[in-house]
Amino acid sequence: MNELSWRYAGWRVVVACFFAAICAWGFGFYGHGVFLAELKKQHGWSSGLISSATTVYYLVSAVLVAFVGDAVARLGPKRFMLLGLVLLGASSAVIPFIVAPWQLYAAYLVMAFGWAATSVAAIVTILGLWFQTRRGMAISLALNGASAGSIVVTPAMVALTAVLGFTWAVPLTVLGMAVILIPMVLMWVDWPPRSTLPTPPANASTGSAVSSATTWTRARAIRSLAFWSVSLPFALGISAQVGFIVHQLALLEPLIGTVEASVAVAITGAFAIGARLLLSLFIDRLDQRKVTALLLLNQAVAVFAITRTSDPLILYGACAAFGITVGNLITLPALIIQREFPAASFATIANLSTAVGGFTYAFAPGLLGILRDTTGGYTVPLYVCIATELLAAAIILPRPRPVQE
């Protein structure tokens, strides 16, 4: 049995990683908006105080994801992901019972460990053990759970809060996801059997920018132009993307109203899922640097359109165009790294790149908020996003020369 067959056991690992991504993004990314709103209601804390805890959470996570590969090797995929799910679920479930700011920081610190063990770095590392030829498709399919988290977990918490209150809503949502996901991890997530370990395709070295004989360390990667030619543009592009998404509702609400703005956000998420699914069918056969540049240009055009109109239909179309890029920008760094770095160093390089991106985008929402407050509107912040995306598109296109050993 090999990864080209749908009966290959690795595809069940993809399903488990898909549901892990639903939990990771549902609680550890989109859930922060729910936590912020409810904690403000309960305690009267400022948005700045709560948001500062979120920034610390992202910064700690950015450090941790660089070491995910080492942790998977030491604990094994099953124990590592189970530990991450326990930490993510427990830290989320206690948030309704927090009564002091230091407790929020403590909960978010624990959540940072859970996020690192269930999000991009963990999923890319675990699927990298099972897949070579179909790695792009496997990662793309699994990371669709990221967008699904905003459709499943967040609405569930909001709906249960309206009926039962915040104190019951989060623990019950955590329990529901645990009942579904933990059996999947126990049954399916593990080391691949030696007889089914993926082997590189015959043309795997074609177009590789780095010799497959090279073993890379984090220190060497940080000193390498090849590493930064991937990590820097994605750090810039994802920072602009995260900043826009965090402020999207506040930006659109004065233009078209609350309900219509919510529809625009939903359209963004729906197109993120659809575009990632569609691209996953072809991404292993495309020039992924050119695809990334096109997606960044598409996102810049979409944001520019939003700055020029208040027509609801045009804004919906622009949000749909923006959504086409959202999911794929998360998936593509690992796929480019797979092609341009040796297989033995894939997890190390991919996780370090994820850490660089996480550290960068941790500051994006706050910086856009400061620009918005300083200039009195969202025009300048959006132009900053456009400039950042164009710069990222220009950086990603040149392919580094092969390293001379």
General description of the model:
This protein is mainly α and 405 residues long. It contains 17 helices and no strands. It has helices at 10-28, 31-43, 47-65, 68-75, 77-94, 101-116, 120-130, 135-164, 166-188, 218-222, 225-256, 258-280, 288-307, 312-340, 346-361, 364-375, 379-396. It starts with 9 loop residues before the first helix and ends in a 9-residue tail after the last helix. The model is unreliable at 199-213 (pLDDT under 50).
Q: Can you give me a brief rundown of this structure?
A:
The chain contains 17 helices and no strands. About 4% of the residues have low confidence.
Helical content class: over 70%
Biggest sheet architecture: none
- Through-space gap between termini: 36 Å
| Overall pLDDT score | 84
Low-confidence stretches: 199-213
Fill in the keyword field for this structure.
single chain; 405 residues; mainly alpha; 17 helices; 77% helix; 0% strand
Q: How does the SSE layout of this entry go?
A:
Blueprint: H1 10-28, H2 31-43, H3 47-65, H4 68-75, H5 77-94, H6 101-116, H7 120-130, H8 135-164, H9 166-188, H10 218-222, H11 225-256, H12 258-280, H13 288-307, H14 312-340, H15 346-361, H16 364-375, H17 379-396
